[in-house]
Amino acid sequence: MIRILFACVGNSARSQMAEAYCREFGRDVECASAGSSPAAMVQPNSVAVMQEVGIDISAARPQGFKDLPDLKYGYLVTMGCEVVCPFLPGAKEVKWEIPDPHGKDIAEFRRVRDIIKAEVSKLLTDLGLSKTKE
């Protein structure tokens, strides 16, 4: 089983959405998310825009890298910005430049959600881990 860690600064928007899409679209994959400076809560607009597409992340809680049970991941996917990620021995780093919707309106959260959906779908397809044939 391949393990993927999605990382951003607050673990309150982008990486949470990426993890949720990975769980939704992936097969034979374990995924998690974390932030270099975790926020107090997942941003309400993140929860709302994911609910619009039928994915519930209302129970998700931001976490830091130190909160993960272990850091043995095959892939580390960073969302962009100045995220400070741990060194993950053996992990292949995948860098995405996805805008941070923090402080923006819900339309920007939707735009970012759709970018993340496309990136996660492409990654899973490229790795042969997609539930659907694309």
Can you tag this structure with a few keywords?
134 residues, alpha/beta, Rossmann fold, four-stranded parallel β-sheet, 3 helices
From the N-terminal CA to the C-terminal CA, the straight-line distance is 21 Å
User: What proportion strand?
Assistant: 15-25%
Q: How many beta-strand segments?
A: 4
The tally of structural domains comes to 1
Describe this protein's structure.
The chain is of the alpha/beta class and 134 residues long. It has one domain: Rossmann fold, CATH 3.40.50. 31% of the residues lie in helices and 16% in strands. It contains 3 helices and 4 strands, in the order βαβαββα. The chain has a 4-stranded parallel β-sheet, covered by helices on one side. β1, α1 and β2 form a beta-alpha-beta unit. α1 packs across α3. The radius of gyration is 14 Å and the shape is globular. The mean pLDDT is 92.
